[in-house]
């Protein structure tokens, strides 16, 4: 089953949007297999966003992501990488559609609430960067069939 790495960024944490965001992915039917609060170090931020090293916004991006804690998650499900990106909306909240996380809650591109892996290679790399194997669980939803 496919897995992706999602992260509520410092603005989402400070604005108390963790529950809202987790809820959207739960209701969609995806399975949460790992989650934690953490303060991202400068080194971790630079590695995570390494692909943007030469971009003019890189330093701002690193200082923003290290400015306050984040909520890191691993979600599992059918086509979850692409679906989560759809649910997040476009990078720039000004262009993100209503109904998407960035469209509903984001204001500016430098503070756009949530990160999500953009490919299976990124997902694998980012999950390994943020989580140890023993921090992730694997399970089937066997109880819910008795209560629905
Ligand atoms: P993310 O990696 O955070 O999930 O966002 P993304 O894939 O939608 O966008 P990406 O191109 O990977 O950019 C990473 C983050 O850099 C910031 N950014 N600022 N000032 C700008 O023009 C600009 N462009 C990108 C955004 O915060 C974006 O999420
Ligand atoms: Mg990206």
Automatic annotation (TrEMBL):
Active site (record annotation): 115
One Pfam match: NDK
CC cofactor: Mg(2+)
Modification type Phosphoserine: residues: 122
Location, primary (coarse class): cytoplasm
Reaction equation(s) it catalyzes: a 2'-deoxyribonucleoside 5'-diphosphate + ATP = a 2'-deoxyribonucleoside 5'-triphosphate + ADP; a ribonucleoside 5'-diphosphate + ATP = a ribonucleoside 5'-triphosphate + ADP
Tagged with keyword Heme: no
PROSITE patterns: NDPK_LIKE (PS51374)
Phosphothreonine carried by residues: 91
Keywords in alphabetical order: ATP-binding, Cytoplasm, Kinase, Magnesium, Metal-binding, Nucleotide metabolism, Nucleotide-binding, Phosphoprotein, Transferase
Subcellular location field: Cytoplasm
UniProt: ATP binding residues: 9, 57, 85, 91, 102, 112
Subunit structure and binding partners: Homotetramer.
Cited function: Major role in the synthesis of nucleoside triphosphates other than ATP. The ATP gamma phosphate is transferred to the NDP beta phosphate via a ping-pong mechanism, using a phosphorylated active-site intermediate.
PANTHER family in the record: NUCLEOSIDE DIPHOSPHATE KINASE
Sequence similarity: Belongs to the NDK family.
Name this polypeptide is given: Nucleoside diphosphate kinase
Organism of derivation: Evansella tamaricis
